[in-house]
Fold this sequence. Notes:
Distance between the termini: 52 Å
Oligomer: single chain
Shape: elongated
Low-confidence stretches: 119-127
Amino acid sequence: MTVPDFQTWFLPLLRLLRNGEVHRIRDAYQILGEEMQLSPEDRAEVLPSGKQQKYINRIAWARTYLKKAGLLASPGRGLVQITDRGKDLLGDPPDRLNVKFLKQYSEFREFHEYKGEPGDDSVGLVSEEIDETPEDILERVHRSLRNELAEELLERVKQAPPP
Length: 163
């Protein structure tokens, strides 16, 4: 099994917190890793930066997205708790909870569709179906740029006159 994308963690994280108590997010990482039956290899897999385990990063992003949708709250550093909105959602949960579903909440739309400061013409990352975390996207873009640069450099070397 590979580490699931961050959206796959939405419902399991909400269900874990359904009792309404304040939980340490560190404990949630461990419990969810077990619930999702991640192998020791999957749990040990780290991001390309080597600084964080991939499954923990994905759960952390799930937490951020759920917080921005008002389904979770963070009553303190490293703490997480389900909100009334989150409990209501679990009363009649969707088949799949994803970014598209979260866009029904205005707070989440503001977060997800943020395009920068007024007058800033940069384009925000807005997608209906996004399976990658920002780190995944950066790594993919970095790899692509590195490959393009290598190809361009090789082409220039081939075109250069012999010494």
